[in-house]
Amino acid sequence: MAARGTMPLPQAVLDGLRGIAILWVLAFHLSWLTALQLRLSLSSHTVDLTYLLRSGWLGVELFFFISGFCIFYPYTQHRFGYRPRQTVSDFALRRAFKIFPSYYLSLVVVIVLGPFLFFPSRNIFWQAISHVFFAFNFSSATTTALNGVLWSLAIEVQFYVLFPLICLAFERSAAVTFVAMSAIAVLYRFWSSACCDTTSAVRYQLPAFLDFFACGMLASLIFSYGMSRGINTEGSSKAWWTLASVASLTAVIVLVRYVPDAIGRGDALFYLAAAFLILAVTTAFSKSWWQGIFSNKILVFLSLFPTICTFITSSSQ
Fold this sequence. Notes:
Layout: H1 11-34, E1 39-42, E2 45-48, H2 50-54, H3 58-79, H4 88-117, H5 124-132, H6 151-172, H7 174-195, H8 210-228, H9 237-258, H10 268-284, H11 288-294, H12 297-304, H13 306-315
Antiparallel strand pairs: 1-2
Helix pairs in contact: 1-3, 1-11, 1-12, 1-13, 3-6, 3-8, 6-7, 7-8, 8-10, 9-10
């Protein structure tokens, strides 16, 4: 099938979700440091939304969802005839150029200046080796030793290593692969919650987050299918997509309230991952004014400067 050009990314949606994820994580650290609260006064009633701040660690899961969407997107474009298939080497080079330079520079800075500016680290040689190969999340002794917020990057890179195989499986049978990835995540969380406390590295391994990557990949596939069918054209259906997007955003806000209390249940986070999927897809096909809320200047600014926000959050560890 000849390539038909490049299908545009739902940039407003991705910028908004990425900005929300960064702002969410920042809010979590600020609330942890300052006991910041969020209360809204509505007439004679007060709505306490502080739980949105205290659950800001879920912004990391939102990042995983976005990552699954973005890295699978070129393959969904190929599936619907919009571009040639991306090779494994092209995928690896893109990921390497995006991550390695800034990551290894940050390691050098932390290793050299850490004892003076941050905190001393024991066994610095083994800490450095584990970080160089993105294996530091395998042990509680190394997970947060150099820079606590880097643990999620280890998960990302480990997923990238497996992605070519996951991608092939997803292309052959999206439904089966999605169910399998989600089931692995749910079962792993059930098991790790039963066997280990929240400080254990066992709780923070790639299998525990596979459903967020899977939901991102499925959202990418659904979006590309919709674009190929002309769903994104202006019409009365956009009002329904917008309404569905508002409803899914409301569902996310409600789910966030109960996820921390049910974190020991392996399925609790899956419902949130599914809500992210519905929110991303419905927003991508919604009216431009609603998408504009997601692509406002604040969220776009935050989405463009994740390194700055990472430094801020790491400084609060």
